[in-house]
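Box S1 | Example of a co-folding query
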Amino acid sequence: MNIILLGPPGSGKGTQAKRIEQTHGIIQLSTGDMLRATTGSDTEFGRRVKAIMDSGQLVPDDIIVEMIDRRIVQPDCSRGFILDGFPRNVAQAKALDAMLAEHGLRLDHVILLDVDEAVLVDRLSGRFSCNQCGASYHDRYNRPSQHGICDGCGSTEFTRRADDRPDAVKARFEVYRKQTAPILPYYRDRGILRRVDGMAEIDAVTHEIDRILG
Ligand code: AMP
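Box S1 (continued) | Returned holo structure for adenosine monophosphate
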């Protein structure tokens, strides 16, 4: 089963993708996480990508498309994958169709996490994740059950993203409205777009997604 999770920054794509990964045995492919892994390296490429990401703009399509094209054919994707953060514009959606066709794969579901933007700013400003396993948390809505200790792996080290600062958040919403939202009709016209209320409790959102995935 191959699915796309769509939704604005902070809509819960990463959180839900990790849950789907556990329950459905398919792999989360987060382009943001893949890119963040490269920005740690002290290379010209890493610095260039980091500057773009920190500003909230999109990294060039060719870099992203090549990254995904290589990733979806790896053995761990053989049962399927959850695309989280890709595609981000219509050109990427078309490139995805081309690569799926080339590999004899298909898209089963495109799930939109529908949320109110005003709430998202609040969500983004409080979020952090585990350095070790990537589990995501929030200062107010989703704290680890024991303070300072990751529920998933027991690590005590957490990170906050540079692009969750207010100026970058503003840029990311604008990019979403102008470049990513136009993807919705592309999938709606094909009858594979499903909307989920992303404002509901995290467990309720997971439940809705599970119903769609069957
Ligand atoms: P995310 O973790 O999905 O919020 O992505 C963080 C940042 O990574 C974005 O603001 C972009 O700079 C970059 N990025 C992630 N996915 C893509 C993509 N599909 N196309 C272009 N840039 C991306």
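The longest strand covers residues 109-114. The chain has a mean pLDDT of 94.
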